[in-house]
Amino acid sequence: MKAEISWLDDPQTFRINQLPAHSDHRGYATVAEATAQQSSLVQSLDGTWEFAFAKDPQHRPVGFYEPDYDRSDFDRLAVPGHIELAGYGQIQYINTAYPWEGKHYRRPAYSMGADRPEKGMFSTDPENTVGAYVKHFTLNSELEDQRVSIEFDGVEQAMYLWLNGHFVGYAEDSFSRAEFDLTPYLQDGDNVLAVEVFKHSTAAFLEDQDMFRFSGIFRSVRLVAKPALHVEDMTIQSGVDDAFTTGNFKLNLKLSAADQLTGSVHVSLADDSGQPLWTAEAAASAELDLATTVNHVHLWNHHDPYLYQLQIELRDATGKLVEVVPYQVGFRRIELKDKIMQLNGQRLVINGVNRHEWDAHRGRAVTAADMAHDMQVFHDNHINAVRTCHYPDQDAWYHLCDRNGIYMMAENNLETHGTWQKMGAVEPSYNVPGSLPQWQLAVLDRAKSNYEMFKNHPAVLFWSLGNESYAGDDIAAMDKFYHDADPTRLTHYEGVCRNRVYADRISDMESMMYDPPRAIEEYLQNDPDKPFVNCEYMHDMGNSIGGMNSYIDLIDKYPMYQGGFIWDYIDQALWTQDEVTGQPVLRYGGDFDDRHSDYEFSGDGLLFADRTPKPALQEVDYYYGQHD
């Protein structure tokens, strides 16, 4: 198959040869590896890559992926990282508009009619920068003679992949993991991996989030070996009975084999101290369903994030252990009862924040230390919930929320703000995805990727369909997907308030942004159909958060008011060197000769970009502490 640059212009082409999305489990070769969480089946490709930058598609190094291509003039670039923060291209912060507005007239493909595919929009775009990445690797001995895939945790915004000159695949959706099978193209000794990253494709219309606009391989990359018998996917259901005393555990496994699907599966469930509670064995098959009950179950919640220990062991036909898959399991129930969201039979109160992934040096290429620091801030200030605005986060963050009892609103990578709001007015004449059939599969794919990756995390209470993308048949289809795939969780979407025709088909909760307390109270006084959640409120620009008590008072007064998520957790700003003083300073939008820009609008966090708390955090700590 040959890679086509025209895919950049087509919303119906968003994944080529990608492996299906699946659970975020990790396989290990031995029990000792699983205990230490150091897998010999994984080979990191993070580090220094060869790199060439092009200002537009017409100037990119065509054929750079060929093993014998002369790359002697290529630079070096760190992965993970953003191209712009390495000194290439334009750093730009925008809130609701698209980067090309005021420069190029563009309408999303098919939004002006089924006969308007808008060919060439991005494939010939004079401002669509391109990064050409090359990495040489030799397989670790533990990966030799096995099936091997590659995982990209995050690439903005459209990527083409080659190995040893062979085209492997194509992916969009910047914040969801993209996985490809490399097995047919691997060779002994040196392998040449090449990735071509375009800053813009039709995915740009779906990723109009309030943030700095970057590009590149900004999350980790790794090779993963699949043993002779391998867990491809697993789905855990860990609910509780109506008395909240017995846990109902169900496990669905999907297995693959290098040759014949033979061998055995051993499954065990233990408490948090490792005391075994249940074991089961079965012959290996393509799909397995196992179940048990747990008496006197220890429920998971914010104050007591109790996790059971699941372990799956696969053995080949000779009895040799070939793969170990551990996973932590939390038993809990989230439901709507009498029009109130309840967790484990108790009314849920959300003391939440919206959290962009951000680091003042590395942008969205956040580290484990960043995440650990944020989790400590949550605990120190009575924050019990987080909305992953407005995209899936790094996998490690979900595991941290599991272990720390942080309730998650897990949001899709979707925002199309600039297609329906112009100059502050609601004007959806060319909104996407809307009800356009040519865009529906792309957004459903994003929903499926979000669900499959994070479906086993007890911290995830809600699936969020995206942010500020109006409403139509396509978002209604996303809501239906989530309810069909996962009836154990609730859905969220605020944008249906812009198109109330879909109110009974989208979102299990009434969700608003920045509604004043009096408007919320009026809603609650009129026997509403859905509980109320502020998906964004307070908007912490400058030294704000004043008047927070007016919202907190509603919690005690109206059971159907269930709290909300402050906008937002941390400033988006970057460390730079001041041209006059030579001192390091934090710079916001507009400080990088980025025009147009929304300037300091990115400075609306409870923390400065260097993670120094602002005075507003004291008020959050005080008021959230009243309902912790």
TrEMBL record:
Q: What positions does the domain Glycosyl hydrolases family 2 sugar binding occupy?
A: 43-227
The record's SUPFAM superfamilies line, in alphabetical order, gives: (Trans)glycosidases, beta-Galactosidase/glucuronidase domain, Galactose-binding domain-like
**EC number(s) on record?**
3.2.1.23
Q: Where is the Glycoside hydrolase family 2 catalytic domain?
A: 334-625
Entry similarity comment: Belongs to the glycosyl hydrolase 2 family.
* InterPro entries linked: Bact_Beta-galactosidase (IPR050347), Beta-gal/glucu_dom_sf (IPR036156), Galactose-bd-like_sf (IPR008979), GH (IPR017853), Glyco_hydro_2 (IPR006101), Glyco_hydro_2_AS (IPR023232), Glyco_hydro_2_cat (IPR006103), Glyco_hydro_2_CS (IPR023230)
Sample GO molecular function, one term: hydrolase activity
Q: Which reaction does it catalyse?
A: Hydrolysis of terminal non-reducing beta-D-galactose residues in beta-D-galactosides
The cross-references to Gene3D superfamilies, in alphabetical order and at most eight, read: Galactose-binding domain-like, Glycosidases, Immunoglobulins
Q: Is Hydrolase tagged as a keyword?
A: yes
* Name used for this protein in its record: beta-galactosidase
- Domain Glycoside hydrolase family 2 immunoglobulin-like beta-sandwich residue range list: 230-332
